[in-house]
Amino acid sequence: MTATTLDTPPVTRPLGTTGMEISRVGFGAWAIGGADWAVGWGTQDDADSVRAIRHAVARGVNWIDTAAIYGLGHSEEVVARALAEMPEAERPYVFTKCGQVWDPADRQSKRRVGRRQSIMDECEASLRRLRVERIDLLQMHWPAEDGTALEEYWGALLDLKAAGKVRAVGLSNHDADQLEAAAAMGHVDTLQPPLSALKRAAIARELPWCLAHDTGVIVYSPMQSGLLSGAFSAARVAGLAADDWRSRHDDFTGEALTRNLAVAAAMKPVAARHGVSPAAVAVAWVLAVPGVTGAIVGARSPAQVDGWVAGANLVLSDEDRAGIAAAIRETGAGSGPVPD
C-alpha cells in the first residue's frame, strides 16, 4: 500500500439501494455530544468538534452519523454548526437515529420508545436541530422497550420516507429475525450493527442477511470505543474521567481489558508494515468483512481523523489478517466468529 494510495480520498461504495454512494468511512458523532448525559464521553470543546467534522469532509469523508440521544440533541446541533457554511455541493450526507428519548429535567435519563407519534415528533425535532429539509438516513436506534411492536415504529419510518421527510430508513442494533419482520412491510435500506475485531456477532447472521437483501451496512465502533486505536493502555484506562462511560464498561476492566489490549497490540506490527496507525488497521479489518459498506469512526479533533482515515483504502494481506485472527483466538478476546 503506497503513501499516495493512503493519502487519496476514501473510496466509495453504493449504500444498498438508496442511491447514495458513501465513502468507506463516515464521521461518528457520538463523542461530540459531550458530557453530562447518560453515555457521555467527557468534556468536549464544540469548536474542536466543528474543526474535526470539517477536516473529515476535506479529507473526503462524505457522511456523518449522529443520533438525537447523543448529548440529548447537542450532537445534532454541533453537526448543523459544522455544515452551516459549507456550499451545498460539498455537504456530506447526514444520518441520524431516533427511538431514544429523555426527560429534559433529568439529563441522565433515556428510554427506548417506539410509539408512532414519538417517532414522528423525533424526526421533526432532528430536522430542526440539523437545520435540514430532509434527513438522508433515519434509523431506529434500538428495538423499543416500551411495549411497542416493531411493526409500529417501522411503519412510521416507512411513512416518513414516503412523505419525503427522509431519503432512506434503516435499523440499528436489530437482529436478523427483526430485519426479516421489517422487510415484510417494506425494504430495509440499511442496518447499523456493532462490528470490530472484538465484537463480531453480526458476521454470523445479520451481514449475510443484508447481502441477500441488498441492504446497506454501516458498522459502528470498529475501534471498539478506542480500545483498538493503539493509544490505549491499562494506565490510560485507569485515568478515564468519571463522566466518560468507558470508565464503567466491562470491556475496559479486568481480564477483558487485558485480552482486548492484546488484540490491539497485534495490530501494531501490521500498522508498521503499512506505514499507518493501528486505528487505520482496525478500520480496514471491519471493511474487509463481506457485506460491510462503510464504517462509522468517531473523532474529537482533526488529528484523530488523520489517524484513521487511511483505513478506508487500506487492504490487509493474508498475513496481516492471520496475525490478528491468531491473537483473537489465543486470547479468547471478544465474541463472535473469527474470519480467517
Key attributes of the depicted protein:
340 residues; alpha/beta; eight-stranded parallel β-barrel; two-stranded antiparallel ribbon; globular
Describe it.
- The chain is α/β, with parallel strands linked by helices.
- It is 38% helix and 16% strand.
- The chain has 12 helices and 12 strands.
- It has helices at residues 3-7, 46-58, 74-83, 116-130, 150-162, 176-183, 206-212, 234-238, 254-274, 278-287, 302-308, 318-331, and strands at residues 12-14, 21-23, 25-28, 63-65, 93-98, 100-103, 106-112, 135-140, 166-172, 190-192, 216-220, 294-298.
- The strands form 3 sheets. The chain has an 8-stranded parallel beta barrel with strand order 3-4-5-8-9-10-11-12, surrounded by 6 helices. The protein has a two-stranded antiparallel ribbon with strand order 1-2.
- The chain is globular, with a radius of gyration of 19 Å.
